[in-house]
Amino acid sequence: MGSRIKDNPETTFEVYLEVTHPGTAGSDPEVRRRFPEDYIDQETLQTVPKFCFPFIVDSLSVSQVGQNFTFVLTDIESKQRFGFCRLSSGAHSCYCIISYLPWFEVFYKLLNILADYTIKGQESLWRELLESLHTLPIPDPGVPVHLSVHSFFTVPNTRELPSIPENRNLTEYFVAVDVNNMLHLYASMLYERRILICCSKLSTLTACVHGSAAMMYPMYWQHVYIPVLPQHLIDYCCAPMPYLIGVHSSLMEKVRGMTLDDVVVLNVDTNTLETPFDDLQSLPSDVVSSLKNRLKKVSTTTGDGVARAFLRTQAALFGSYRNALQIEPGEPITFSEDVFVTHRSSAMRQFLQNAIQLQLFKQFIDGRLDLLNAGEGFSDVFEDEINMGEYAGSDKNYHQWLFTVKKGGGAIFNTVRTKANPAMKTVYKFAKDHARMGIKEVKSRLKQKELAENGYSSGAGTGGTGQGAGEESNTARSPPSADGKDGGRTWDERRPITVHFGQARPPRPLVAKRPRSNVGLDSSPDQ
User: Fold this and answer.
1) Which of 9, 106, 259, 360 is spaced 20 to 30 A from 99 at the CA atom?
2) What pTM value is reported for the model?
3) What is the pLDDT of residue 270?
């Protein structure tokens, strides 16, 4: 799917480091303490200290004390290793945990506890916490974990849409940057520009980088990705390829003195965005208008409204990719770029012609094809959004495909029945499940026509708006029932409750025993 998150890492974290900086010009930060003590990856030990102080160390940096921020290292398999940091002691000490797990809130909380133990000299508690965490088998999402008397957390579900205020990255991003600049940054990312984000507060800086990238879901930024730039890598700002880089304000004077051509710059401190491009104007105007309206509506609310607004926009732009799937008996499923581009409106075609050249889109399509041809099918919130929004539901070819499968004939059904191809089975089940929705819509529109011909009003909730693919009304409307009625309820009122909102009864917390027992934890939570 193009994700840079590593599947099934072996441990909760790789190494914990305490790094100090003497605070004098020309001096380098040094590792003062590490856990485990036998950790010997010299490349990491030499690289991490430079990332722990990504600013000019002077009197202005004292304001960074207590700041939590994150840097990213990329391994040989292009997977991200996160460096979760906390600055203390006049910004001359940094506590850092390296992990493949994107557990931002969890590791920030643990770093605060570890820093407190260190300052108070509570060595035994410090060691107990780290040993318990390091030997902890990685629990499933939603499972509560007790590591020590002061340490409790719930394993985050990284497959859920980020919510405000639970997700710190999205919360800080949405608070710091206004809707208009969020839209411009989103458009620039869709066109894979060279993007710099600068801020004087490290926590807000890295939160804005991570938060803006998360709004691209189900796609992932595929180019240079540096949430906070250390001084020794400042030349990356002149890189000729697309990038998304966070820069502390103390380094911006040096950056501005460099040759920066065609770079989009978001200054979070002043909430201003500089761009030489018209990327936002190049997006379909109806899609932009709809996204802007949604963001303004959810600006005063909590929950996943912001993330879902961007998800719906991604579905409006790219959701019709399913209509371009080429399905032939006994052959791997493929994707037709020509079909994907030509079946949309003229405004959308212009955008999609560029989109098919993007690395983030290519990686997305490759991932979807891998799932189909492996027989795994679709099971994420993006596909759910396409189905509920019916962005591709009015496409003629798509409905013909559904109709063929529903009738039980044609190449798809025959392939499933005779060759037992697992990928085709997945497609057949997927199409069959959603054919009902198309049939209900046809019935609804027929009833509308009958009522109109007899002089009656068709009502506002029948779903027959006549909108084309990729278009959407300003108000949410519910899918019609089999008889064409919707009971006056909106989409959100009719949507099923899903596991994305958590478990009804959480399992018993996992409790890590003291290290001397040589047992990491009780790993048998209630189901």
Assistant:
1) 360
2) 0.75
3) 96
7-11 long-range contacts, Cβ below 8 Å, gap at least 24? 8/138, 9/99, 9/100, 9/101, 9/138, 11/134, 11/138
- Backbone dihedral angles phi then psi of residue 20, each to the nearest 5 degrees: -120, 155
Mean pLDDT score of the chain, rounded to an integer?
Answer: 78
Q: Where does the pLDDT of residue 298 fall: very low under 50, low under 70, confident under 90, or very high at 90 and above?
A: confident
Taken in order 348, 351, 357, 362, the sign of the CA dihedral is negative
In angstroms, rounded to a whole number, what is the distance separating the alpha carbons of residues 175 and 179?
10
Amino acid of residue 81: R
pLDDT tens sequence across 431-446: 444 444 444 554 454 4
Distance CA 344, CA 321 (A): 11
Amino acid at 414: N
* Separation of CA 505 from chain center: 27
Count of Cβ atoms closer than 10 Å to residue 522 Cβ: 13
> Which of 64, 72, 107, 56 has its CA nearest to residue 227?
72
Residue 36 has pLDDT above 60, yes or no: yes
Which H or E run includes 294? Answer: helix 285-297
Q: Which two tokens stand for residue 445?
A: 């529109």
Cα 95 from Cα 114, distance rounded (Å)? 8
Parallel/antiparallel/unpaired status of strands 263-267 and 194-199: parallel
Of the two residues 27 and 173, the one the predictor is more confident about is 173
| Helix orientation angle between 396-407 and 410-419, rounded to the nearest 10 degrees | 40
Say what the alpha-carbon torsion angle 266, 269, 272, 276 is, to the nearest 10 degrees: -30
